[in-house]
């Protein structure tokens, strides 16, 4: 087999090796089925078992209460930027807390669909932090409040839900979904593209409180209609069968091999600390982008003293099997995405390389 490298890509990200091996082993014929998961009907009893287990695993891991629906949709988190306001605005206005590039995109889509206002915008500070509660300018009648729990590009993460009173809270959790336990009851809707933490690209998971389904206007195009998707258990049309199968395997791995989200959170914090420690101890050689209080445990972002050194760092890193560490062009520098599937061993390898590079170049 070709050698696997440490893949620090921001998305699609690494998948657990055991999950890839299982998918490979069963690709030609699912046990007891005799057909590939790529060939089975989405109306078959086999796929029923797959989508039911994927949902049940998510319910177990996140302790999703019965009055929430779990949907498996297409179009990525980016389609949710439009679907959320199309379904939930109900002629009103929504508030957006913008702490990075994805939140900005979500806000811009909402403005195309209806009324949306900025409850806080971190752009002037280059998206390095989240707002203090007293900085939030919330509309008392907001149809919902949208935030991005983890800004993948800047590496800025909410340590906890923003305080929004009883306004319905909507979250783009694409890049920290399943990385830690969250109190689902605090949310009206959570969405996440699978390709960061939950599976391959092609499926987006939406967790929606049932009362929110009543807001969908009549005559909504079918594919964009949460209520219709919920009524049809995400099977209105052909869903992304393979991607949902992979979500089933990844969530099974999280539950059975890792041991649940509390344990995953512990490991993720340990991994992030290994890298932030190096940044903090490097006497300014590595400069973190995010304010230390709001540093992401999923995407670690930092700069080096010059762009030349950054280029050198990235090139040498690849010689050490450390790949995809280039920061997003809007932030520059480096970014290590250390999603659930990145083992401690990979993070330790990056840490050792960072320490060595610093000692040689500082
Ligand atoms: C990756 C990402 C998106 C975009 O996801 P797509 O599935 O490509 O549309 C949106 N929000 C966040 C926070 C992301 O990390």
> Could you name the ranges where pLDDT drops below 50 across 5 or more consecutive residues?
none
How much is the radius of gyration in Å?
21 Å
CATH class of the largest domain, please?
Alpha Beta
Q: Count the helices. How many? A: 9
Number of domains: 2
Number of DSSP strand runs: 14
Overall 3D shape: globular
CATH topology of the largest domain: Aspartate Aminotransferase, domain 2
Major beta sheet, strand line-up: 2-10-9-8-5-3-4
CATH superfamily of the largest domain: Type I PLP-dependent aspartate aminotransferase-like (Major domain)
> Topology as H/E string?
EHHEHEHEEEEEEEHHHEEHEEH
Annotate the secondary structure layout.
Blueprint: E1 6-7, H1 17-25, H2 45-62, E2 68-73, H3 76-88, E3 93-98, H4 101-113, E4 115-121, E5 145-148, E6 150-151, E7 156-157, E8 169-172, E9 189-193, E10 204-209, H5 226-231, H6 241-258, H7 261-281, E11 287-288, E12 299-303, H8 307-319, E13 322-323, E14 334-337, H9 344-361
Parallel strand pairs: 1-13, 3-4, 3-5, 5-8, 8-9
Antiparallel strand pairs: 2-10, 6-7, 9-10, 11-12, 12-14
Helix pairs in contact: 1-6, 2-6, 3-4, 7-9
This protein binds pyridoxal-5'-phosphate.
Residues 11, 76-78, 102, 148, 152, 172, 174-175, 193, 196 line the site of pyridoxal-5'-phosphate.
